[in-house]
Amino acid sequence: MNLIGEFISLGTALCWTLTVISFEKAGKDVGSISVNYLRIIFGFLFLGLFLWITRGSFIPIDASYHSWTWLLASGIIGLVIGDLFLFQAFLDVGGRISLVIMSMVPVLTSIMSFIFLDEVLSLIDILGMILTLGGILFVLYYKRQNKQPSHPHIVRGILFALIGAFAQAIGLIFSKVGMGDFNAFAATQIRIIAALIGFTLFMFFKSNWKNVRFAVTKKRAMIYILIGSFFGPFLGVSTSLLAIQYTQIGIATTIAQTNVLMIIPFSVLMFNEKINMQEIIGTIIAFSGVALLFLF
C-alpha cells in the first residue's frame, strides 16, 4: 500500500510520454499555440464528463473556498505561466536544454515541500532521486542534436525555462495545500478552469484565434490533440495530483520525469530515430534510481 503513489507516478510518466508524442505530431500541422489552447478545452470537457459520471457534477461545486483558492492559484502558476514560459524556452533554446533545466523540478519541489509541508526524504529516497535524475541528465546531455541550428536567444531561453521550472514546482506545492484529501480529478478540474481562463485571456492578447480556427479544420491534427488531451490534462495532470496524495512530492515528480526515457522506444518505432549506447546507460542508471524509490 505504501507504493501506491510511486506506481501512480509511473503511470503519470507514461501519460506524459503519450501526450508529448501526440502534441508533437499535432504541433507540426497546426502550431503549438493552437494545440495548447485546444488541449485545455478538451481536458476541461474530459474531466467534466468524468466528474459528472462519477460524482454527479460537471464542476466540483462541493470544493471548499480554501480548495478553490489554492487550486485556482496553482492552475494559473503551474499550467499557464509555467507552460507559456516552457514552450517559449523550447523555441529559444530547443527541447534538450529546456528539459535539462526542467529536471530541476523534483529538486525544487523537494526543497519547497520540506520548508512548507514538513515532508522529509530518507537517505535512500535522496539517493534514488539522484540516480534517476542523473540518468535522465546523462541521456539528455548525449542526445544528438546535430541538425539543430544555433540558438540566438539562449540567455532568454534558459531564463524562461528556469521560470517554467519554478512555476511548475510552486503549482504542485499549491495543489497539495489546496487539495488535501479532496478528489484528485475534481482538483484537476479546478486547475484546468484557471488554465482555461488564463489561456483565453492570452489568446485575446495575442489575437491568435485564426490559428485555432485553422487547427479545428485539420482532422488528423484534431485526432492527435484529442489523444494528447486525454493523456495530458485529463489523465496526466490528475494522476500527478493523485500521486502526491500518497507519497512525497519530490518522489512523485522524480518518477514522473522518466517520461524523458519512456519516449525513446516510441521515437525509435515511430520516428525511426537511432538509440545510442549513452541512452541505454542513462536509462539503466535512471531506472536503478526508480527501483530504489520502489524497493526501499
Question: Could you characterize what this model shows?
Answer:
The chain has 296 residues and is mostly helical. The chain has one domain (4-295). The chain has 12 helices and no strands. It has helices spanning 4-30, 32-55, 65-102, 105-117, 123-142, 154-179, 184-206, 209-216, 219-243, 249-256, 259-271, 277-295. It is globular. It starts with a helix and ends with a helix. The model has no long low-confidence stretch (mean pLDDT 88).
Features:
82% helix; mainly alpha; 0% strand; single chain; 296 residues
Strand content: under 5%
- Give the rounded overall mean pLDDT: 88
Counted by DSSP, the helix tally is 12
Rg over CA atoms, rounded to whole Å, is 18 Å
Q: What is the overall shape? A: globular
The helix/strand series, from N terminus to C terminus, equals: HHHHHHHHHHHH
Structural class: mainly alpha
Task: Count every beta strand, where a strand is a DSSP E run of 2 or more residues.
Answer: 0
Low-confidence stretches: none
> Distance between the terminal alpha carbons, to the nearest Å?
13 Å
User: Major sheet: size, sense and barrel closure?
Assistant: none
- Estimate percent helicity: over 70%
How many structural domains in the coordinates?
Answer: 1
